[in-house]
Amino acid sequence: xxxxxxxxxxxxxxxxxxxxxxxxxxxxKVLVALYEEPEKPNSALDFLKHHIGAAAPENPxxxxxxxxxxxxKEKYEAVLEENKKLKAKLSQYEPPPEEKRGE
Length: 103
Fold this sequence. Notes:
Elements: H1 2-20, H2 23-36, H3 44-55, H4 60-93, H5 97-102
Helix pairs in contact: 2-3
């Protein structure tokens, strides 16, 4: 009898853990979405994988990397623009192609 209560206690602890971490809520929402789907997908498992992945909160590290990528894109665009301006400026000081051949 004591063994039965210990197993039951572990189950209850695990259930509370899942509830606190939001797993039960997320699973419930995804299962309800599958239930309410007018045309059931061929693979319920793929539906769950897709929707659980979409419902998962963003990892802070992933968000930081996204911000870094956005900053790098901005810097890249600025460098391209600066490069374009510098090439135009440099072309003012270079002799035309005809003069280069004569030298």
